[in-house]
Amino acid sequence: FGRMSAYAPEGLGFHCGLDWFDRSLAGRIYFFLLFVDVFFIPIIIVIYVNVYIQHTVYRLTHLKPSILLELRTDSNENSLRRHVSETLNEKETRRLLRLYEDRRFVLATSISVIIYMIAWAPYSIVALAQVFGDQFSLYNPWLMTTCAVLAKLSMITNPIIYGILLKGRIMMTLTLNMK
């Protein structure tokens, strides 16, 4: 957005952020574009993609194997059918394990989206309030600092979430690679 806004001491003054005191038209347009491009559009895209992924995982989880084996009296055919049945059972078990891992990934992603929304919503609300002329947040440095710290903390939560929820998969991969 170029030179529409500048950085200035924010909140309690120990960190820099947007120049919330800029009341010019360019400053208001900047805050509005910031809200739309940095908060609103990414949230819409991430929610859409996550709903699509959850729907796909749900559909695949509830998919039933459609191969039914006929039983005949010939012993060679029975042993062949038993082998095919066991092979299909192993494939189905592997498929279900992969889907279980996918469900854990979807859970981790959903938690990340919720934390992103919780962390960035206050900052975005302050930006919208600035666009529409409310100056309450400007004269409450603790509110500005809290919003900024929450937003900045959201950057470190994703590795923690994925580390906790996907730890078993990572450990299994490391163990298999060491063998």
UniProtKB/TrEMBL annotation:
It holds the Pfam family 7tm_1. It is found in: Membrane. SUPFAM superfamilies: Family A G protein-coupled receptor-like (SSF81321). GO terms for molecular function: G protein-coupled receptor activity. GO terms for cellular component: membrane. The chain crosses the membrane at residues 29-53, 105-123, 143-165. It is a multi-pass membrane protein. The keyword Ligase does not apply. PANTHER family: OPSIN (PTHR24240). This is G-protein coupled receptors family 1 profile domain-containing protein. It comes from Rotaria sordida.
